Amino acid sequence: MLKVMMISHSPNPEKVVAAAAKMCYSNSGAENILDKLDDEKTAKFLEHLTQMGHESPLEHISFTFAVEGVSRALLAQLTRHRLASYSVKSQRYVEEAGYTYITPPEILANPDAKALYDQTMADIGKAYEELTKVLFEKHKATMDEKAAKKKAIEDARFVLPNACETKLIMTFNARSLLNLFKMRCCNRAQWEIQALADEILRQVKEVAPVIFRYAGPECVRGVCPEGSMSCGKRSEMREKYLGNNKGE
What's the pTM value of the predicted model, to 2 decimals? Predict the structure, then answer.
């Protein structure tokens, strides 16, 4: 099951972004850059940035998440968001005997498909354990047991599926998160990464509600970029992500 926990974020994130914007448009110096930046002034600065499309000040704040209950297939998509930092559970150092795996909802809802899927996962798990044993026996003849086990699982992992569950820590700045939401909150995004993006968005809105007020797929504030492949549900998406903000 997907689990996302925000474990850290920049202190006073919205005020930091407002201060960065203020530096661009005023004569304020380091000593007084935060002067008069109360909640109302901060919100006005941030709204102005949104209307202008001036996103670079958002790069001054970051959010760090612990994520688990996701597949290696999701990881392959997630790391395409390159302006972020990732620390992922290593299959070279962590043995995957008795590994857990992610089951797509469409498979979960189909008994025949699920039976085949579960059997395949079990067969792969057995193959992984057998490979680990064979390779371990070979390597322990020339190295200590700890090194032999590492060497064995390093190669045995090649049989593991995309479904294999993984865990990670990741850090994004706010501008990169907005890009993540534009791409991955979209109805055409793969189901797993869409669920991840939605949960991240829910959590960052609690910390920086003004910054992420209009966050979501591109269609909620503009034109759908998918062209003929659009889901055709712009109204529903605007309601989901903007709610009462959609008329502003």
Answer: 0.92
